[in-house]
């Protein structure tokens, strides 16, 4: 097993990424597993090469071995549970691999007459329909697109966020380039290969904050909505894929299915990883309440104005949403991208079907523990 840090171009400021060779994920020793875990925390995103023959059962076994105390189920639960309360996320069909039901098939286009037991399935991947202002049909057909939805893989209700996501590229589109446009008035864009996943580091994002902002983030926390993706299922995304348009389309709490207050998730704004690095890890589209403490001795301010919550988060998060900070390393068939889901945001990128089929196997499981911040959330303060 050889870990090689990725050397980014002179136009890049990315601080993450490594490739791993000499590792067969069908047969991982305990020593290599520990090295893989450490490398993923250190480099945040690793590209494990040459996994063309990875058995889906072994794919799932990998993520369970990385967190053996976690419940043995996908981070969003079973496919049935996901369809019932997945809201925004369950608006497209995401089937499971029959031999390994916790492995999800995601992608775009016809997946074949028989894909690991899935018969005649056509995938409809994340679409620019999510945006309030998507590119026109003509512009999209010409290869112009947007980041679809910047996010972490997390249910944010009942289950904990997965530590890792492992995404295997079974088949990647093999035609041409596409142009990702911010379409937010900034004039920013990137030329990339279709079917890639985009990433940015929330450790690097934290480092972009001022000292005053870091202190506020260190001492503050957020509360997520019950069934958060159902709560926002009518909402639309901003043109650059980060955050939502503020249109008041969130469901009222009384419209939501019956929910358990004990399953509501309250997390620090800043998550500290096993190497001691701080990440500004707030999934702003799902935050319902914010608890602000500018200093350790300040009184807590409870913010329930959704517009104000999002404005504050975007004033920080938009800083890293620039081409020099975004990583879209070319992915080859057989690669497994594995990332530290507690310190990375990622986004799919839609593309015209003419560029080819995309086939991915995705695995993650809700963690056995909760994110820890630099400052404990006061137990005396409740929502």
Automatic annotation (TrEMBL):
Keyword flag Oxidoreductase: yes
Cofactor: Fe(2+)
One function term, GO molecular function aspect: metal ion binding
Pfam annotation, one family: TauD
Region ranges (Disordered): 364-383
Ranges where the TauD/TfdA-like domain occurs: 16-362
Keyword tags: Dioxygenase, Iron, Metal-binding, Oxidoreductase
Record carries keyword Iron: yes
Composition skew (Low complexity), residue ranges: 368-383
Family note: Belongs to the TfdA dioxygenase family.
Protein's name according to its UniProt entry: TauD/TfdA-like domain-containing protein
């Amino acid at each position: 097993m050889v870990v090689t840090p990725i050397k980014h171009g002179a136009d890049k400021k990315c601080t993450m990424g490594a490739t791993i060779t000499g590792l067969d994920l069908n047969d991982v020793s305990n020593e290599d597993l520990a090295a893989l875990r450490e490398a993923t925390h250190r480099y945040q995103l690793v590209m494990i090469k040459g996994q063309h023959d990875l058995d889906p059962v072994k794919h799932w076994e990998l993520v369970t071995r990385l967190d053996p105390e976690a419940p043995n189920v996908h981070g969003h639960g079973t496919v049935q549970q996901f369809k019932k309360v997945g809201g925004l996320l369950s608006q497209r069909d995401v089937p499971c691999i029959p031999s390994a039901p916790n492995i999800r098939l995601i992608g775009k286009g016809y997946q074949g007459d028989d894909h690991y037991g899935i018969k005649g399935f056509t995938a409809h991947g994340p679409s620019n329909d999510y945006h309030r202002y998507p590119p026109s049909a003509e512009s999209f057909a010409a290869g112009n697109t947007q980041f679809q939805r910047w996010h972490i893989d997390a249910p944010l209700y009942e289950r904990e966020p997965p530590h890792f996501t492992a995404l295997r590229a079974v088949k990647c589109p093999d035609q041409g380039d596409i142009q990702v446009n911010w379409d937010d008035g900034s004039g920013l864009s990137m030329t990339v290969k279709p079917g890639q996943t985009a990433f940015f580091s929330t450790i690097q994002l934290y480092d972009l904050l001022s000292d005053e902002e870091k202190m506020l983030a260190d001492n503050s926390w957020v509360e997520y909505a019950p069934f958060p993706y159902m709560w926002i299922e009518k909402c639309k995304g901003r043109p650059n894929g980060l955050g939502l348009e503020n249109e008041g389309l969130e469901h009222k709490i009384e419209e939501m299915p019956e929910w358990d207050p004990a399953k509501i998730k309250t997390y620090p704004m800043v998550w500290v990883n096993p190497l001691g690095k701080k990440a500004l890890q707030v999934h702003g589209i799902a935050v319902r309440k914010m608890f602000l403490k500018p200093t350790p001795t300040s009184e807590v301010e409870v913010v329930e104005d959704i517009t104000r919550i999002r404005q504050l988060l975007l004033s920080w998060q938009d800083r890293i949403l620039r081409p020099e900070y975004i990583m879209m390393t070319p992915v080859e068939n057989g690669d497994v991208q594995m990332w530290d889901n507690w310190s990375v945001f990622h986004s799919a990128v839609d593309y015209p079907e003419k560029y080819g089929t995309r086939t991915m196997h995705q695995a993650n499981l809700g963690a056995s523990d909760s994110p820890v911040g630099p400052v404990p959330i006061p137990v005396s303060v409740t929502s």
